[in-house]
Sequence to fold (265 residues):
Amino acid sequence: MNMKDFSLEGKIAWITGASYGIGFAIAEAYAAAGATIVFNDINQELVDKGLKAYAEKNIPAHGYVCDVTKEEAVQALVAQIEKEVGVIDILVNNAGIIRRIPMIEMSAEEFRKVIDVDLNAPFICAKAVIPAMIKKGHGKIINICSMMSELGRETVSAYAAAKGGLKMLTRNICSEYGAYNIQCNGIGPGYIATPQTAPLRERQPDGSRHPFDQFIIAKTPAARWGETSDLQGPAVFLASDASNFVNGHVLYVDGGILAYIGKQP
Ligand code: NAP
Ligand code: GCO
Fold:
């Protein structure tokens, strides 16, 4: 065992939707492990916000505007990255949205939008990078799954369907391209404190914790929300040579939620 197996020196990592949040934290860890960071976000304002944030961390990131649901735009972006930075070694499908709407009140269009970003886009981005990974003789694809890859809950039907599908897309990429030394795995974060979950953690008018906040604390053995930093080590492991025989796996980083019935009231 050589600890250099955990290094990302000389690798080019593209993390989608990584101007902030989980994607940004993963990119920060990859930079610390030696990778060159490429990220995209949906508009120039967010890309500029990300470039500023990376610069503040002394990370020379390459930022691009791209809506990952648009296949032609993604194909063009990958070609531009290969020309300007180099062939992508590591893809993290991080960009995602959620719409919390009771299913029978959700329009088909709203459902399709979540599926488009959270499931179709990871397919589009993986399809765009795999040919060059095959030529290069290696590649790492990491899909950011969710507790909702395993569990349902009220109001997140589209998101759960997408993240459940993303778990199976992860397994299928493993199955179809493992022979080319491409490893495709998932990370399943638990409940992490980011803008996406901010509405679930808002303090109540009386200053008390949000009921959902209290619920998650009771459902998590660690009795706390995750921080984006909790995902950094697992993400580096799955991007590194240390995980070259790990494929088709979803690594849950959830503080134990999936193992726990929940604290008695
Ligand atoms: P976030 O704070 O909402 O960040 C998501 C990022 O993706 C944002 O920068 C967002 O841009 C970008 N994005 C959305 N649609 C895009 C598109 N079509 N093209 C390009 N970029 C796009 O989310 P997060 O909490 O960091 O979560 C990141 C990933 O982890 C998501 O896939 C999420 O489902 C997953 N996850 C989160 C948690 C959690 O508890 N936070 C737990 C499990 C899994 P905008 O700001 O314009 O939307
Ligand atoms: C929700 C939350 C979750 C988290 C995450 C849990 O509304 O239930 O947003 O879905 O984002 O996916 O793993």
User: Anything to note?
Assistant: The first strand starts at residue 12 and ends at 16.
